[in-house]
Records
---
Amino acid sequence: MNNLDNIIDFIKKSPKTELHIHIEGSLEPELMFKLSKRNKIEIPFKSVEEIRSAYNFTNLDSFLKIYYEGSNVLINEEDFFDLTWEYILRCKQDNIVHTEIFFDPQSHIPRGVNFDKIINGIDKALKKAEKDFNITSKIIMCFLRHLDEESCFDVLKKACNYKDKIVGVGLDSSEKGNPPTKFKRLFELAMKEGFLTVAHAGEEGPPDYIWDSLNILKVKRIDHGVQCLNDEKLVDKLIKEQIPLTVCPLSNIKLCVFDKLENHNLKKMLDKGLRVMINSDDPAYFGGYLNKNLIETSKALDLDLQDIKKLIKNSFKSSFLDEEKKKKWLKKIN
Ligand code: ADE
Ligand code: ZN
């Protein structure tokens, strides 16, 4: 076996965790089409092929428009179950043993979908995943940052009734012009209520948004964070404190954060000692699940086996698993 085959073999066989996946972003065109028929929701596409061919994005906002339109087909608890279950089957295929899933209730509630249907559909699929496949999981509710504080407080109040199911809160959607400072009071309350916190920052937005997510929102992980290399002092802090950065390479290419995978800065981040790992973000829209992200990135950036091991171990270390479970998995990788 040559070196690349070895690496691909290792990627496929290794137990892995995923920390940055929007469950609505795992809605494959086939299921979107099926649900649009089942729920009699019109979508602006005549076929699965037509849906796929619409996935050409120029930036984050051009993607979000299509992503929220796609989410319109999700109505009933069963839809959220089916969506989550399809993602779990991909986890099984990719040997993901633990996953931390984002969901966006504010993209469903205004359409008349009850919070309990969303969370129960997702949760039932995740419970079945643990029972059938031993795949463990956590649920993180994301606030849509293009909306106002009041709408976010409303949804936080709803989440407080589901603390047995939701472990944390995050911040996603359109980054530029929606700085972390807008949500200072919201994150203070979320923490007071006992939720763990993460935030998308430095995907398209400036390093200042990473600083503010850490210093003002006091988050435990930064989602994306690839813009950090433009600020040396920030890089020093991220290395010193080993703040996790949940990088999503195929997403960054599809959304034109980098022009091609060969120019992605992940290898530079890794070599500096930043705690980075690889994730799929919205795999149904960006052309691949976790293993494909790992394999394509390895090829493009010439990663070696040590790099891959580091990425996979970083992911386990940065998860919200308890220390004992982390230790067990890390030992298996070594
Ligand atoms: N929501 C779904 N995917 C996202 C991304 N990549 N950035 C911000 N918000 C998102
Ligand atoms: Zn994301």
---
Amino acid sequence: MAETKFTPRVFSGIQPSGGLTLGNYLGAIKRFVDMQGPEFETIYCMVDLHAITVWQDPAALTRNTRELCAGFIAAGIDPEQSILFNQSQVPEHAQLGWIFNCVARMGWMQRMTQWKDKAGKNQQNASLGLFAYPSLMAADILIYHATHVPVGEDQKQHLELTRDIAIKFNNDFGVDFFPITEPVIEGAATRVMSLRDGTKKMSKSDPSDMSRINMTDDADAIALKIRKARTDPDPLPDTLEGLEDRPEARNLVNIYAALADISPEQVIAEHAGQQFGTFKPSLADLAVAKLSPISTEMARLMDDPAEIDRILARGAARAREIAAPILRQTYEIAGMVGAVSA
Ligand code: TYM
């Protein structure tokens, strides 16, 4: 497909299903900030319709959506330059999601590891929305004809499915309408791991708060969690290969690299031979220096929820200007009366 046909446009989303973690920040938001600029139109979304695929307390969902918006802005997303909004204010996502439910195959959905992980052993009791989740995600992206999607490693399979849905739609209808989106999974922190277990992803749903750094943690909490992070007794090696079977050590090096905007190789070059008793305090200082201004700004923004709501409403109106014509053309391609002219 001719790349040039589509405006270079970035879309990505985060679920407002709990607080923001360091994983969300380093794997997603910080990279969203980096992609703002003249090269791309950037669209960032709080995906509340995705969040409710598992039960959300309504008051908590409202608060988490506003707090996530505050997090985006505090981390450097400019709501004038980027389009920033919550998904449910742009109904075209769900409308295109339905079309894609009719394009995607049951077998494709059943293969999704996130479905298997989240539904667990009790698939019969999981919501239908949780099963269909990846087709709504494809709609989030393709309703804007987005060409690039920055995400953490855990979303890779969903982005492959998005490409499959675009290809099947284009083939089924004999059109060249939806772009084949590029996943952008880059940097040192595409998979930030739990501070308690280097083989598990850092996640807002982990029962142990010590396993993660929350973007709302204060300096003492950040320093404590890093000091208590699980490690091994060996000093840092002098090459990255020396970290191969040391997932906890590798994770802390990756976090350092991503926070400092340097490569893991540079971290090793600067800290080779150090014991964790020395490295952890440096990492804690760096984390506090980078994260505290963000959490302070988030708290300040949260003092004015009406302003956050205005930003989201304005973002949604701008998003609809792009989404509505694409939905209309999709309906036209599918032959829906009202979209097709006589
Ligand atoms: P969600 O809300 O689970 O996570 C949001 C983003 O944060 C990244 N992330 C991580 N990156 C590195 N290390 C971690 N430990 C870590 N934890 C989370 C995720 O990879 C993601 O980029 N399905 C998506 C939301 C979504 C979406 C979309 C994303 C809905 N529609 C369209 C992109 C495009 C999700 O559940 O992300």
